[in-house]
């Protein structure tokens, strides 16, 4: 790899051991992907919940935090993905104190590094939206796919250690989605009907994701009609696509910035389109129907809710009460939680018996142990991403739109 | 009999040798493994029930979310990691995890690597040259 004088000095240890070790790992990754050089990144976003970190990961952060200030401080704006515990609410959902302790240690270490604890996977809606052409080091699959596709920024999946390395060095190896050649379409899907709900957008993401074979495939969607999809529509679509497909970028022709038309998005003749019908969407959703109407917990998360989603949920729950046998959890970030308080949404949601969690996401908070402690098995959600992940944690997921999820939580059974 | 040398792309991590555990299936540390017991735990996986600790794992494609990047490090710290990972196709997350854990990883071989190595073969993995050597095969 071609290194600048500045990078060579960093690699020689002139800026301290944390930056030297971080850059050395980045050089290894760069060589692995045949990167010619590094590219400066404007932000880093670190996925490091205590479940993924484990004891060894937390110890690594604490070792970094023990270096002198000048050697350990991040050198670009650095933010965090959802954490493993909401320090204000963990007791109400019987979260094990040992996980919460691990989380407290990680939190203290990150603060010592100068990391801003945004604890969010919707930073593109609430913190600092990426810009067309901007190079980033984003650490959540949903954040990566939204930044690349909807905003035209450039980032690979940067796992926790890798995003942390970018935070310390200010750069990442130039490979994958930083390069024009990997951002072109590789497959084509023709919609017969535009999805209407967030759940249907998520189902479309799941369908297309299932058809993807590798990280470097880029699906192109045609046939979106009517109003332009909202940020929340594309958030659910992208999050599900990334989850089911391990995919990092999509185009929607006429909607996303690098896909004004088919000719622009493909090199040469476009491949034949795969049709996606109303029946395909319905079949995907009903594949998560459950074999009876029992219900333990309803979850709105994955990704965290925007203020618009919270507004809608508050409207559905206002002046109503959940069935005593069903829990309802909502996850958002600290910014939206404060906004929800100002706008009266939090009050409307929590008076029903629901719990608004902040700075967490359901599957990143030790979901298996949470289910065992609370007796939760049958889980209902409007998030296709969550249905994909949560089966592996011992839950039996049911997918339905927000209205049906709320009506079921009130009835105490799936309606 | 001479050694068989298989060429892949330049990899990550130190050279190691070990006994191979092979399947034409994919790899995700979060979804496929019981990282406490050291076994494959996803029932649909072709290596379900097999112990992978200390083995050279030979599989098809790296899949799954970003958490794997932290997990290889934790597995190695606990002495519960495979010896090395050989894949047809890695992804950024597994490469980042290997770099963080100083864990041997090679991918992009000329032919399907899962068809060239048999479970039980003793193999030498050298990421610096991107080669895998199987003793006494040709």
Question: Which helices and strands appear, and what pairs or packs with what?
Answer:
The complex is a heterodimer of chains A (415) and B (138).
Chain A: H1 5-11, H2 17-32, E1 38-40, E2 44-46, H3 50-65, H4 69-72, E3 78-80, H5 97-113, H6 123-126, H7 141-149, H8 160-169, E4 171-173, E5 187-191, H9 198-210, E6 219-222, H10 231-245, E7 251-252, H11 262-265, E8 274-276, H12 278-286, E9 297-300, H13 307-317, E10 327-332, H14 334-342, H15 345-351, E11 355-358, H16 367-374, E12 378-381, H17 384-390, E13 396-399, H18 402-411
Parallel strand pairs in A: 2-3, 5-6, 5-8, 6-7, 9-10, 9-12, 10-11, 12-13
Antiparallel strand pairs in A: 1-4
Helix pairs in contact in A: 2-8, 3-5, 7-10, 9-10, 9-12, 10-17, 13-15
Chain B: E1 4-7, E2 16-22, H1 29-32, E3 33-34, E4 39-40, E5 56-61, H2 68-77, E6 84-89, H3 92-101, E7 105-106, H4 113-116, E8 122-126, E9 131-134
Helix pairs in contact in B: 2-3
Provide an overview of this structure:
In chain A, helix 2 crosses helix 8. Chain A is globular. Chain A contains 18 helices and 13 strands. By secondary structure, chain A is an alpha/beta fold. By secondary structure, chain B is an alpha/beta fold. Chain B is built from four helices and nine strands, in the order E-E-H-E-E-E-H-E-H-E-H-E-E. In chain B, the strands form two sheets. Chain B has a seven-stranded mixed beta sheet, with no helix packed on it. A two-stranded antiparallel ribbon of chain B has the order 3-4. In chain B, helix 2 packs parallel to helix 3.
